[in-house]
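Continuing from yesterday's entry. The apo prediction looked reasonable, so today I'm repeating it with zinc ion included to see how the binding region is handled. Same sequence as before; SMILES copied from the compound registry.
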Amino acid sequence: MILERLEVGPLATNCYVVGDKASHEGMVIDPGGDATAILEKVAALELNIKFIVLTHAHFDHIGALGRVKDAMKAEILVHRGDAEALSGGHRAAAEFGFSMPEAPHPDRLLGDGETLLLGASDFRVLHTPGHTPGGICLEGGGVVFTGDTLFNGSIGRTDLPGGDYGMILDSIKTKLLTLPDGTTVYPGHGLESTIGRERRLNPFLLSQ
Ligand SMILES: [Zn+2]
Ligand SMILES: [Zn+2]
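Holo prediction written out below.
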């Protein structure tokens, strides 16, 4: 698998550019800002981007969505539970003092258990509500992209609209801690980890 992390936007969001080695089909996960850097990375990797996947619709994960979409002509995918938040993303950004263009509409709404295919590589959509109602993780090829659900040593905040502390713990326990310990965790902010490491050391999960 081709996998590169870029730190983008005002809140240091991780944008991942992922591709299948044989076919060079690819996806961009969470284009939170810095569209030029994302597009340059895609070009350098010679990927044909099929999907632009949002782990959730918070403004720091969607800032470059319009520009990446225009350049790539790829499908924008978001879980149905965050579709409304996506259309209001620019207003949410303004509340935090950031200005952002209105986000384009999603091309397809995702549900739990769906599979995204890049050449011979497949990625499974895991609906993991709690940080937002439509938060997802994407699992495949021994890695999991966890958005703002699970971080290295922490979990996503649940005090924003639609957040639910009990629900995020339940999502992590039932959808993420059930993955093999060696699965690499690529979160929406900060450095990577593994499922085993989070199971053993994440203070929010020790009692789970
Ligand atoms: Zn978030
Ligand atoms: Zn975030």
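Comparison notes:
- The helical segments are 35-44, 65-72, 83-87, 89-95, 165-176, 195-201.
- Residues 2-201 form a domain with the Metallo-beta-lactamase; Chain A fold (CATH 3.60.15.10).
Will overlay with the apo model tomorrow.
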